[in-house]
Amino acid sequence: MFLKDYISDVVNGVSSLLKGMRKTGYYFTHSKEIITEQYPDNRATLKLADRFKGEVVMPHDENNEHTCTGCTACELACPNGTIKIITKFDITPEGKKKKAIDAFIYRLEMCTLCNLCITACPSDAIKMLPNFEHSVFDRSKLTKILNKPGSKIKEGIE
Amino acid sequence: MLSLENITKTTQDWLLTKFSPTMALTIECVIVILLSITLFALLGLVLVLLERKVAARIQIRLGPNRVGPGGIFQTAADTLKLIMKEGLTPDKADKFLFNLAPFVVMMVAMLLLAPIAFAKNFQIWDINIGVLYISSISSLSVIGILMAGWASNNKYSLLGAMRSGAQIVSYELSAGFAVLTIVVLTGSLQISDIIASQENGWWLFKGHIPVIIAFVLYIIAVTAETNRAPFDLAEAESELTAGFHTEYSGMKFALFFLAEYINIFIVCAIGATLFLGGWMPLHIGHWESFNHIMDYIPSSLWFMGKTFFLIFVIMWFRWTFPRLRVDHLLNLEWKYLLPISLFNLLLVTVIAIMGWHF
Predict the structure, then answer these.
(1) In this structure, are residues B140 and B229 in contact, taking their beta carbons and an 8 Å threshold?
(2) Domain with B184 in it
């Protein structure tokens, strides 16, 4: 019947519009829903997502020891040559030669933060930091040596 | 108590003692012009900021909050920027019409200000055909829009202007019928009579369901008439860049922008006058003490409160509903709003004749 369809059309239309207005009205009256981050003001309390990837770092423990064996798996995994590892040979107390890293060169300006180096690493020597404030005045500052000076490999890592 | 009524009366008395009646009238006209221009500028600043804040809150954002405390000077800064900008006129545009159009749109908005009662006995021009005047003048704004679209020599502008023409002409009808329901109930076209008839309750409450339907129809129709979302087909930024004001820049663009917000204010003021009693405080039947307390709130505050409530509702529409397609827009008017408002007018007429309203 025509008139019945017509009226139900109007009623359905109005009710669905009211449903939408109820939702937006809820957002308007509830300021706790606001998701805007006022970034430079809230640096101290900034909360980033768990999976946020910003920069590759090499964690060192309190004895200035890292777990990088210098296997160059990360260098091979890197799709665009961001990582360059220079190895050297340490002499162990037993008189044997052991491979170690001299410099772990990481070029942040070339890095796509794809996480392939982290997954490739067999000894969990590198990880991603949720750090995004990378601007510097000189591009050369973005080329970083990740192993700290005087650091050495942790005992028992092969 | 210091009221706007007293201020106007003292000013007039003082002018009449100092000058001849003709001179006094001229000076009064100048004062009115200055006041309305000030009101326009203030309204533009306030409403644009309000719109941005409402939009932000509805979209779970914060909105402008950098210029001044809470961003209250944002629109002033924007206006300053627009004044500094070059008002470009395209090479092959019809220069005369192109430069005239923003002023036509603005002038229509200014003319509509005349019969609005801002407070008790505070009205520029209380003519006995106030409602007719409003409905006839408000349909003139389409000329300014068509002028802008035609003179721009731009296909987007022309399309936007043509859409706007079709839209305003159609929705004028249901807005007119919604206004007529109140005229039928009041039996007068004069704004002051309409307000006076709501002394024992606003028409929205006194007139049963038909007046509520008329109110909803009025709000829908004027949203379309002021070219605002969900009926902003005239500018439809995703289809027509900016519609009829694509080619405008600087202060000429600002005039269109300002006229849009002034028009919203005016249609909301008229809606508040017709359905919510204008400056009349909330009176409920014979509750003398309650009515007396309500009278203590100044009438200008009542008027502004109601108007800004309606403006908020229209902003709420804008940030909730998606834009209609152009054929849906005309379907909505000719197949739904117009038949409903005709039937509704009939119902209201029956109510008025039988005296069923309160």
Answers:
(1) no
(2) 87-354
End-to-end CA distance of chain B: 32
Residues B100, B74, single domain; the answer is: no
Question: Which amino acid belongs to residue B82?
Answer: L
Burial class (CB in 10 A: 0-12, 13-18, 19+), B298: middle
pLDDT in tens, A83-101: 888 888 877 777 777 788 8
Q: Indicate whether B74 and B102 sit together in one domain.
A: no
Number of separate domains in chain B: 2
Q: What is the pLDDT of residue B194?
A: 83
ipTM: 0.73
**Among B341, B348, B346, which residue's Cα sits nearest to residue B171?**
B341
**Which of B60, B334, B338 would you mutate first to test chain A, the one with the most A CBs within 10 A?**
B60
Q: Are residues B122 and B245 in the same domain?
A: yes
A40 contacts chain B (CB < 8 A): no
Domain identity same for B308 and B348: yes
Q: B78 and B92: one domain? A: no
As a residue count, chain A comes to 158
Q: Which residues of A touch B65 (CB under 8 A)?
A: 38
Q: Are residues B179 and B254 in the same domain?
A: yes
Q: Out of 3.90.950.20, 2.160.10.10, 3.40.50.720, 3.30.70.3270, select the CATH number for domain A55-153.
A: 3.30.70.3270
Which residue from A10, A27, A36 is facing B58, i.e. has the nearest CB?
Answer: A27
Q: What is the pLDDT of residues B192-234, one digit of tens each?
A: 888 888 777 777 777 778 888 888 888 888 888 888 878 877 7
Residue the block writes with tokens 């139900």: A8
Interatomic CA distance for residues B320 and B309, integer angstroms: 16
Chain A CA closest to residue B216: A14
Per the CB < 8 Å rule, is A21 touching B336?
A: no
User: Shortest Cα distance from B188 to chain A (angstroms)?
Assistant: 32
Q: Average model confidence (pLDDT) for chain B?
A: 83
List chain B residues with CB under 8 Å of A25: 316
Mind listing the pLDDT tens digit for each residue in B72-117? 888 888 888 888 888 778 888 788 888 888 888 888 888 888 888 8
Give the amino acid at A121.
C
Cβ atoms of B82 and B251 closer than 8 Å: yes
Q: What is the pLDDT of residue A158?
A: 67
- Residue B61: which of A10, A23, A34 has the nearest Cβ? A34
Q: What is residue A137's predicted lDDT score, i.e. its pLDDT? A: 92
> Which chain B residues in 325-344 lie under 8 Å from chain A, judged by CB atoms?
336, 340
Domain ranges of chain A: 2-35, 55-153
